[in-house]
Amino acid sequence: MTRLLFINVAMFIFIIAIKTVAILFLVRHADMTEHLFQFHWDWTETVRMPWSILTAMFTSHGIWHLIFNMLVLYWSGTIFLQYFNNSTLRGVYVLGALASMVFYAIPFYVSHSLQGNVASPCFPAASGAILTIATVLSFKAPDHAEPLPVIGPFKNKYMTLVLILIDIALFPAGNPATDMAHLGAFLCGYMFITMSRKGIDMTKPVTKAYIIIEELSQKILKSVRNRKAQP
């Protein structure tokens, strides 16, 4: 969970730094920095910027959205780890982000009127990933309650609805595709808990991919260190 928090914050700082440099050097399209790292509904844009699928998983819409997302991730992640392990948390996070991206794109292809009338066609998918974690908790332990400041004990079964309402309020107005993204995140969480009750772990492919990437990165680092050590 700590690693997910760190990556989200680091990604936000990285995007701000790139945008700041672009502004300082008077780059004409400095305001398009987010476009490079968030998910775009148009698949041709994704083909041009394939890294955006990965980076979008860890992006939020502005500082307040980031703070809200990180607080919820820490809170829901802590509860999640009482029932599952870190590997499952990471897998649910990734699957939820991917599901929200897929569902985000659907309205643009169904309703052509959306394609040129949305202020920001890009989608930061961190909120979808976190909503999926909250959905899993809502079904896994609906009556589990955690004390919140001012509010008092708050049950998991109310978490998903509250997160959706707050998330919609934090997003720019006039983008109905975000509602579909939330639906995708919810369905992913529901599907995960349904399959886990049948003994099927949906996060296995994510875990295997993570292990492969980690082993590959360790080999690369080892190779670099060996070259530096050579006289």
Sheet having the most strands? 2 strands, antiparallel
Helix and strand composition category = mainly alpha
Strand order of the largest sheet: 1-2
Order of helices and strands: HHEHHHHEHEEHHH
What is the terminal separation in angstroms? Answer: 40 Å
For the CA atoms, what is the radius of gyration?
A: 19 Å
Task: Please state roughly what percent of the residues sit in beta strands, choosing from under 5%, 5-15%, 15-25%, 25-35%, 35-45% or over 45%.
Answer: 5-15%
> What's the average pLDDT?
84
Give a written overview of the molecule.
With 231 residues, the chain is mostly helical. The chain contains ten helices and four strands, in the order H-H-E-H-H-H-H-E-H-E-E-H-H-H. The strands form two sheets. Strands 1-2 form a two-stranded antiparallel sheet. Helix 6 (86-110) crosses helix 10 and helix 7 runs antiparallel to helix 8. The chain is globular, with a radius of gyration of 19 Å. The mean pLDDT is 84.
What order do the helices and strands come in, and which of them pair?
Layout: H1 2-24, H2 33-37, E1 39-40, H3 43-48, H4 52-56, H5 62-80, H6 86-110, E2 122-123, H7 126-140, E3 145-148, E4 152-155, H8 159-170, H9 177-197, H10 204-229
Antiparallel strand pairs: 1-2, 3-4
Helix pairs in contact: 1-5, 5-7, 6-7, 6-9, 6-10, 7-8, 7-9
